[in-house]
Amino acid sequence: MKHHFWTTFKSNYWLLRYSIIFGLLLWAIGVFSQQQTLLSGERTTEIVRRYSILYPQDWYFDSRLVNRKELTQWAWNLVNTKPLSAVGVADMRYILMEHNDVLPSITPVESEQLQYIDSTHTFQQYATVQHPVTAPLSNPKIYSRKPILRHFYRTPLFLYEVDDDAFTLRIQPILTGVLGSSELFENHRGIKVRASIDRKVWLETSFLESQSAFPTYLNQWINTFKTIPGQGLYKRYTSSLFGVSNGYDYLNAQANIQFNITRHIQGQFGYGQNPLGYGIRSLFLSDFANNYLYLKLNTRVWKFNYQNLFGELAAESANGKRGDDLLPKKYFAAHHLSINILPRLELGLYETVVFNRSRQFELQYLNPVILYRSVEHNLGSPDNVLLGLDASWILADQVRLYGQLILDEFRLKEIRANRGWWGNKSGWQLGLEYTNVAHIDHLDLQLEWNRVRPYTYAHRDSLSNYSHFFQPLAHPLGANFNEMLALINYRPLSAWTMSLKLAKINQGLDGPSENWGSNILLPYTTRQQDYGNLVGQGIDTDVFWGYFNIQFEFKPGLYLQAFYLHRNQKSSLVQQNESYFGVGICWNRLFQPVIL
Description:
Blueprint: H1 13-30, H2 42-54, H3 68-81, H4 86-98, E1 110-116, E2 124-130, E3 160-163, E4 167-180, E5 185-197, E6 201-213, H5 216-225, E7 234-239, E8 244-260, E9 265-272, E10 292-301, E11 304-314, E12 329-342, E13 345-355, H6 372-378, E14 384-395, E15 399-409, H7 412-417, E16 425-434, E17 443-452, E18 467-468, E19 471-472, E20 481-493, E21 496-509, E22 539-555, E23 558-570, E24 575-587
Antiparallel strand pairs: 1-2, 3-4, 4-5, 4-24, 5-6, 6-8, 7-8, 8-9, 9-10, 10-11, 11-12, 12-13, 13-14, 14-15, 15-16, 16-17, 17-20, 18-19, 20-21, 21-22, 22-23, 23-24
Helix pairs in contact: 3-4
């Protein structure tokens, strides 16, 4: 029959719905286990990264993967058991303040310390340790000296909070106001909310309403790709009050729900970003692209950490289109397996696939443990599969070496022939983090080298290339570049921070109607040549980018900021110099310019 019931299953659409329902049932069972949410927050992540180098025996895996209850226990142990400086105590104090809804339930003079229970240093358990009352912090719960109207800012970081057995709530305002030379302007206003139900289901959401006038180089990028890095739909903005004639108005919202499926498997369903890696950049998955819908599962057991990620992407940008048009959708599935083969050595394997199907998700990619390349091969190789390797090695409790290798496509025969075949698409990253340089407390250095061959991340069309909303999912530069980065950060006092970011970029750009492999949105079928492809081919372009920033935190989460930004670009077509001075007041969100 033409309308037979079973014809409704021809696109597997209902199977996908049943899979989601089944997953929600698993979630409903899982929430009865103890909930521990995953780490979020840029400043907390930076703090954990540096101390994971200084005290590697107390830490393992990427800091973004830790649940917040473990995080507060770790911070409380450090502040009570390690000889921290005054700035180090302030670091731990901030972690305890930001995550005070999951503080360790211990007396003020006790802490729980991880101790190995076997001779192979494989298994650990917490043991209660007594400490003198003279510890730097006598209580993990830190209260404000003078709450506002008794109910607001009872603790230093949160405007309002609720602590109950059935319900917890944390509310933070967000504000960034920046004025700079040459019309540079940023105005962000929003709110961040974190809550829990029965301390088993955790919810987090943020909303930001923004107006910005960007540096010239970023305006050129926006005009080319019709999108703002990390943002979605925008409209034009002008202001005679602030002298803005070429600005943008846009919204940004993120949200997620977090839950435990078992004791060692956590789940998260949300709308946001999921960066991977230790670097300033990431060749796997960065936070450069716009938010997207995702489901994430994280499994940590023994020496393994295994993360599954499933997401829905937009194949195009909505800017310049009619507001009632639905953007073409595409999907991606990714997994990352990390293993600590030695106490200070971590190795990882990454795999992802980007694909498009008419009115459905490819259900075969829902298998959380299979190799996606084998699935894609059996489907007829229609999709874009990338493989990656990464590593992290901590040396002498001060230095971390890290790296990533991404393989989009390659043939061993062509690599041996060394003929510059276009299909050998790959990239690599090498980095070094050095904490307390020359034994100067809180003087930290990070160096990084990124190199990506032409046409990497590109595919036949926008439905399968490695992008979302016309923004790269990995490195912001796309492909066909060499990049050297340096980051120097110094905190002489707990309230003062000075930082210097430098970037030296060489990239081959496209001329009119050309495709030399830097723009991942262009189909690789329009490439200029099959052989003789080299990094930097096309219009040879050199960029120097520098940013110096000094900030003063006069209240927890409230900053005064002053900065200088300089960029120089040279090529056979463009000679461009631009410099900007600026000042700002920032509340729970700092001004951070984009490196391009």
